[in-house]
């Protein structure tokens, strides 16, 4: 099973702590180009150095800011590959799926389902409350945005999935010898990592319900499907389509998107709808398509390894 792929003779939980620190270090190094660009702009323009996230997001042209922010994930993704392959001596495929190769059909199916929902719900909101939205499309900036987003946002979302639903999921399983603890821990940490997003300062900590709920949804589909393919597709669609379709002054990504949301952010049923309605519907769709069963065991059962799993590096 997927979560047991980390149960290798050479793996110890302390390695996951060290490996996580190495990935964080790589991500921090990847932020240096952004800091250099902001510093140079501050010196050349005479503007004070930005001290808040909102000031930072508007200090440079939005496409340049997006590219430099996403660049740190390229460094982090490279670190994940190196940590898994050379520190844990584990194949990269084994932190992706239990299948003999990555199932791209699953990735594209999940991506397509969430893309259709995102586009449809956005257009519905636009036509139901047109006063809250501005048509923001500018061909050249949008084309540049599209190139940056298509090339780099899947790296950003894949990095997050490999860290939480792959690497740490298997690490916490090695520690707890069960399935519920890795699911809870990775979901809570994933949601907590979003506490620094500008949406939280605008809407309050209650929005963390959505982020933590999303973490649980991604963790559940990973455990039930014995691989990360569905989570990879969903997360890529969520961020990529969102960045291209709609932006606002208070979101983490401020882009040259097609629409701009000028409404005042508020916390209402729209925060709970994905967690309580949309995600359960998606779980139903995925479960029927991929014939999931034995939910209780796969999500909460104990893990008993009588013989250490052999390294699967040759499968990659």
UniProtKB/TrEMBL annotation:
One of its GO terms (biological process) is proteolysis. The chain crosses the membrane at residues 21-44, 64-87, 107-128, 140-159, 180-197, 203-223, 230-247, 267-286. Residues 143-241 form the CAAX prenyl protease 2/Lysostaphin resistance protein A-like domain. The keyword Protease applies. GO terms for molecular function: endopeptidase activity; metallopeptidase activity. InterPro entries: Rce1/LyrA-like_dom. Keywords: Hydrolase, Membrane, Metalloprotease, Protease, Transmembrane, Transmembrane helix. This is CPBP family intramembrane metalloprotease.
């Amino acid at each position: 099973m997927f979560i047991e792929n980390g149960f290798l003779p050479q793996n110890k939980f302390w390695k996951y702590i060290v490996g996580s620190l190495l990935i964080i270090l790589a991500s921090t190094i990847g932020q240096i180009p952004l800091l250099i660009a902001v510093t140079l702009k501050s010196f050349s323009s005479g503007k004070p150095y930005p001290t808040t996230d909102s000031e930072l997001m508007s200090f440079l042209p939005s496409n340049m800011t997006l590219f430099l922010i996403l660049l740190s994930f390229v460094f982090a993704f490279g670190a994940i590959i190196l940590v898994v392959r050379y520190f844990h001596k584990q194949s990269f495929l084994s932190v992706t799926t239990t299948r003999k190769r990555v199932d791209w059909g699953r990735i594209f199916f999940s991506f397509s389902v969430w893309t259709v929902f995102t586009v449809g719900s956005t257009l519905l909101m636009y036509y139901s409350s047109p006063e809250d939205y501005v048509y923001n499309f500018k061909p050249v900036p949008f084309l540049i945005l599209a190139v940056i987003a298509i090339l780099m946002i899947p790296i950003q979302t894949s990095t997050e999935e490999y860290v939480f639903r792959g690497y740490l999921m298997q690490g916490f399983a090695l520690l707890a010898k069960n399935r519920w603890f890795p699911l809870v821990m990775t979901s809570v940490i994933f949601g907590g990592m979003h506490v620094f997003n500008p949406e939280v300062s605008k809407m309050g900590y209650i929005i963390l319900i959505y982020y933590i709920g999303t973490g649980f949804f991604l963790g559940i589909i990973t455990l039930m499907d014995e691989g990360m393919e569905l989570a990879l597709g969903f997360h890529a669609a969520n961020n990529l389509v969102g960045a291209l379709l709609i932006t606002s002054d208070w979101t983490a990504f401020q882009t040259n998107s097609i629409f701009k949301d000028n409404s005042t952010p508020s916390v209402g049923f729209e925060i709970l709808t994905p967690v309580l309605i949309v995600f359960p519907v998606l779980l139903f769709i995925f479960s029927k398509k991929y014939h999931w069963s034995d939910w209780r065991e796969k999500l909460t059962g104990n893990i008993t390894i009588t013989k250490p799993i052999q390294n699967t590096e040759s499968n990659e």
